[in-house]
Specification:
Helix content is 24%, strand content 27%. The chain is an alpha/beta fold.
Length: 305
């Protein structure tokens, strides 16, 4: 078959490489425009654009799948469109342009967590099992029939970055098999079953930590918002990031109060304390919590103050 692939971040690259290694022709890759990165704001191609260049596949760089992009894709006469984390919606008439429409690799077990941030929302909610689903794209958000899925047990302490990397790897061969099945006519999709939950894109506020909440809830939030938008609170009125934390068996502390417990640095919550492992004070880089704590001028810092 003749394919068009749409994707942007690094988590879409394993799928592009899996399809490029298969029997099908990728006529073009659609990806978002080069973005300014780093302190010098150097315009940098997306990870998918870089992979496409290595593979010798033409790219269409666009931040919206508008009429111009639709026309350019139509000229390629694709049999199937494949989308993995492109960062934009496929609407009509583009939705119906390929002969077999579009399929999407989505990082959840649909219909749970339809939307832009499925892994983030799953971890914030404390889900211990998630997965990857390949489904037929339709006009309604992530509501199409599912061709295949792969379950994944979330390891303790895993962050969004960890889980996305894992799902990108386990999802790519599933996607490739579905494409093969569509090509030979053996692929079968079934309607989604169960009550949908939504996974809207995270905002900065989603990363705010409330230490009056219980320790488990806080750990789930830290995992879900790492690396973006990041778990944050305040210290002496300035932003303070918590990059990694873990459960602690230390005696309870007042919510937000930070103290030493043996070699550990702990912070109080609404239940048991948490052990702070990696933090980032305002204006500084990431550092071990112990190094940060030893450099303080006060013995009783309070986060959230």
């Amino acid at each position: 078959m003749r394919l068009v692939f749409a994707g942007t971040p690094a988590v879409a690259v394993p799928s592009l490489r899996a399809l490029a290694a298969g029997p099908h022709e990728i006529a073009a890759v659609v990806t978002r425009s080069d973005a300014p990165l780093g302190r010098k704001r150097v315009l940098t191609p997306s990870p998918v654009a870089q992979a496409a260049d290595e593979l010798g596949i033409p790219t269409i760089k666009a931040d919206r799948l508008d009429a111009d992009v639709t026309e350019r894709i139509a000229e390629l006469a694709p049999d199937l469109g494949v989308i993995v984390a492109y960062g934009g919606l496929v609407r009509e008439p583009l939705l119906s342009t390929p002969a077999h429409g579009w399929i999407n690799l989505h990082f959840s077990l649909l219909p749970r967590w339809r939307g832009a941030a499925p892994v983030q929302r799953a971890l914030i909610a404390g889900d211990t099992v998630t997965g990857a689903s390949v489904f037929q794209l339709v006009a309604a958000l992530d509501a199409g029939d599912v061709f295949a899925e792969e379950r994944y047990e979330v390891p303790p302490g895993a962050t969004t970055a960890d889980v996305l990397d894992a799902l990108a790897d386990i999802g790519s061969p599933v996607l490739a098999r579905v494409v093969d099945g569509i090509a030979d006519g053996t692929a079968v999709a079934t309607a989604q079953r169960g009550e949908p939950t939504l996974a809207p894109k995270l905002t900065l506020d989603d990363g705010a930590l409330d230490f009056t909440q219980d320790a488990e809830t806080l750990l789930h939030r830290i995992a879900g918002v790492t690396p973006e938008p990041g778990a944050h609170t305040t210290l002496d009125g300035a932003r303070f990031k918590v990059l990694r934390a873990a459960p602690s068996e230390a005696p309870p502390l007042t919510p937000g109060r930070v103290a030493a417990s043996g070699k550990d640095v702990i912070v109080g919550t609404g239940t048991a304390p948490l052990r702070l492992e990696t933090v980032q004070p305002a204006g500084k880089g990431a550092m071990a919590a112990g190094d940060w704590f030893r450099g303080l001028r006060t013995d009783e810092p309070v986060l959230g103050a």
